[in-house]
Amino acid sequence: MISIYIAVASFIMSVFYFVVLLPLVPLLKIKLQLGQKAVLMYYPFAGLSKIWNDSITKEKDLLKTINQQLIKNPNVVVILSNFLHKPLLIWTGSEYIKDMYLDHTSYVKIDPFMVESVGQKGLVLSEGDRWKRQRKLLGTAFTFEKLTSRLPMINQVIEKVSKDDKKRNLNEFTSRITGEVVIHSFFGESTNGFQIEGKDAQISIVEILSEIFLLPMNNPFIQFKQMLFEYKSWSIFPTQKEKDLLRRIYNFKQVIQEMIEKRIEQLKNQQLENQDKMVFLDLYVTEYLKQQQDKKQEIDIEEIIHQFITLFFAGTDTTATTSGTCLYYLAEYPEMQNEILKEVIEIVGEQGDIKEEHLNKLVKINALIQEVLRLRNPAFCPIFRTVRQDKQLLDVKMKKGWFTLQYHIGPGLLDKHFENAQQFDYKRWLNKGNVIKNDNGFIHIPFAAGPRNCLGQHMAIMEIKMIIARLVRQYKIQLNPKVKQITFGMKFLYCVEPDNCLIFEERNSG
With a threshold of 0.85, does the pTM exceed it? Predict the structure, then answer.
């Protein structure tokens, strides 16, 4: 009997060491080293998940609890927390953020989906030579000429979706627009009416990717499995939800693969005459066929599928969520909406497409976008990372395997960098002088910075400008009076909720 007690006690002590002491002790050492420059927000096992969940429950804002710590003490450079059983260092000081972005090879990105064959070979998760090759290849599709050549298509998509969508679900509405733009940019016009699971492809794919991401956050058992077994966790005591998701992933990948293989056969027999009109798929397939001919095959069909998933995830959700948040603030501040409407009519006119010459003149819309990205950036931090090897980050020593992230929204919330930083004021970006104080180049970096900054940031800004301009011209955007509580929560990204928070009233309806 005594041996049983000893075994139980040993097990409890082992769990206590593994779950509590292992992450806590190094966090306490850093706290003692940095003093008031570090905030300890440690919760056994729950860690960051508890911080976020409590913040949504109590403050109706995913980030408010962390933001309040920074506002309370502007000298804080790091939040000390944990992700499950490991230390998690959330860097908020701009010099530390700068060092991490510039020295990106010292960190390993964590796959946000943790599903095999979903994005690992794409640009976001690739590293080393593969990342360099992909960045160089895709960079040719994001030149100014290529971006502006998509203007007619983007105008058409916004007009079509605005007409067809009932606009009762903000996230679905904006995702339909941005998703269709990505699909057209990748596959071309042959995908008109493209559906998966009986829904518009863009909505179906957004749902699948969001469900994959949120699954471990909403289920501790699945989170624990992923912690222990990573990609293999899907085959170990799988829940019905996991089985359903794997089936849906397989089905949508099959559809994408068939479209890619069809295009490969087409381009084998008929080369494109106008290279400037190449969509992303044509760019990839042309290189794929060239490598095949030269017998130096680096690209395979699986990589092209992963690249589509990556570009879709990066180009749909982020742009859609930013657009949705901009629309919310237009409803929240009717005077600003009227000022922006006036700008659109003066520059673009009461009807007609938005053209290249209009984009740089829409300065108030640009100011709105920048203010939303300063305060409510959907991608408020990049993908979580682990430390590749023991790393000296300025004055802090981080150990191999620790979790870390750059909270790059943090510096923009502080009065030492922006006047009245907690106040939403889009007009600050209309000033001729320096908007940002004490700027080291890493204070306002909504699309990250350094060698791995967002390749599609100019397309994203262009697309958001066009969405806002066309919608504010066509609709009076209002808060839904039936919605009593607005929350800034998380689906895949930081977003305004609930989805029925806005009403779109035709301006010519009466």
Answer: yes
